[in-house]
Request: fold
Amino acid sequence: MYVHIFANQTAYSWALLNLLEKEIDIENHIFVFGIGRDHPMDYPYSPHLQKHILYMKQPGQLIRILKLIFSAKWIYIHLLAYDPTLFFWSLNSELLKKSTWIVWGSDIYAFQKKQQSLRTRIYERLRQHIIPQFPEIAAFVPEDFDIIASLYNSKARYFPILYPLPVDVRQLDTVKDLPTKGTFSVMIGNSGDPTNNHFEMIELLSVFRNEDLRVFCPMAYGGTHEYRELVNSKGISTFGDNFIPWLEMKGKQEYAEQLAGIDVAIMNHKRQQGLGNILALLYLGKKVFIREEVSSYSFLSRNNCKIYPVKSLLGLKFSDFRKPMDEKESTISNVGKIMQEDYAANLWKNLLNQH
Reply:
């Protein structure tokens, strides 16, 4: 039996399970979602797939799940959560020797929290014990793995991996040619999480406050209510009615239409994040700014996709800011290849076939 352990349900885990059901024989695969951390959205699965999903928050399933984990031929840990589950992995090192850590991004950079409290210092000590024991680590780009190898003296074998995107290319195709509205539209970030660095983006754009500009800020999930209120207040005080928060989850078609109405997007994260939005926007021919030090910047550049560094916004004239992206057609073509389901499917098959 192969056991997949997820910290919580997301649109990406939902997309992956549906891909695996279509591409491999899942009869020997069990998918486990974490204790009390499930995303509030209801993700629909086929009856066949639902039989292979277990939830650790259901007490009656816990003993069964533990038995499956200890008897598993191989374990896939989808995100090494920065929480008390680290004690479990540390106390059961023999399980790590038959496990692949599949990196999500936040679990790489969790070390940045280590000085926040006694608890985080303990978590980091546990990670220093756990991470070197993984024989395999799968990550989006080699640069993410290089960070892990450097910080934790990991000798693991690296596998490239990409979660299928919860964005339907066919829906994007239906909105690609929709005309944008007259006012120039900018999207900042992808969620209400503070890692978006919203205030810095608002400050960068404040020099354009008197231009014909609208600023859209997706905050339908992530972060606290208090933080989202602060962002909204800052945005409105800077741009007035031209600051528009997106506070509700949208259906795929409606969200695709919203993205099609954007002219420029700024993703100011300090780590790899918001990939689904970035790829969708590039596929729609939109200009996207990302920090150069983020691993997705090097990945997209290596795959001949035109992106712009956030630092280039400093001192940029509005006339240059609103110019269409360079190398538009080649970028759309190259992003389209990455977004193809076969691209992600082949990477997952390569990993799973090792075991």
